[in-house]
Amino acid sequence: MGLNSSNPLQKEIRCVICNIDIKNINEIFQLSHNLGVICQNCVKIFSSEDIEIMTYLFFIYGGYFGKFDQRTFSLPEAIKSLTRKDFNPKKQILIENLNERLVHKALLHGISPIDLVKTLESFLNR
Ligand SMILES: [Zn+2]
User: Fold this and answer.
1) Is residue 2 over pLDDT 50?
2) Rounded to an integer, what distance in angstroms lies between the CA atom of residue 121 and that of residue 11?
């Protein structure tokens, strides 16, 4: 067996945002809040604020950025499915939680928080 054969001690290290398997240890970016590591590419494309939101939401709700096809995302459908699940007149709807889950749903479809805001704006201005 050569040195490059798979080592059972070497665990797969995945980016908590895009789920890519980070092969090069030098390309790992450790997050300050300890919710995992992210790849250099995600460091490059996302703002630190977006990274914070995304790592938090993926930690809480699971999944990763772009898990589903972006074209299958529908804002009205996403809102409908979330409100259906949460609608209970006897219980106060947790707006903050709804908001979080809407952002999370968008992220799963590869839509960043800033793109979601743009989508919301154009939806409301139609
Ligand atoms: Zn990444």
Assistant:
1) no
2) 43
Residue 103 alpha carbon to ligand 1 centre in Å: 18
Q: Which run of H or E residues covers position 28?
A: strand 28-30
**Is residue 68's pLDDT more than 90?**
yes
Question: Is residue 78 within 8 Å of 35, Cβ to Cβ?
Answer: no
Cα 91 to middle of ligand 1, angstroms:
38
The residue written with tokens 């939680």 in the block is 97
Model pLDDT for residues 89-116, shown as the tens digit of each residue: 555 556 678 889 999 999 999 999 889 9
Residue 14, SS3 per DSSP: strand
Quote the ligand 1 centre to 65 CA distance (angstroms).
8
Q: How far is the CA of 14 from the centre of ligand 1 (A)?
A: 8
Residue type present at position 92:
Q
| Intra-chain end-to-end CA distance of the chain, in Å | 63
Question: Looking at residue 5, what is its pLDDT?
Answer: 47
Please state whether the predicted TM-score (pTM) of the whole model is above 0.85. no
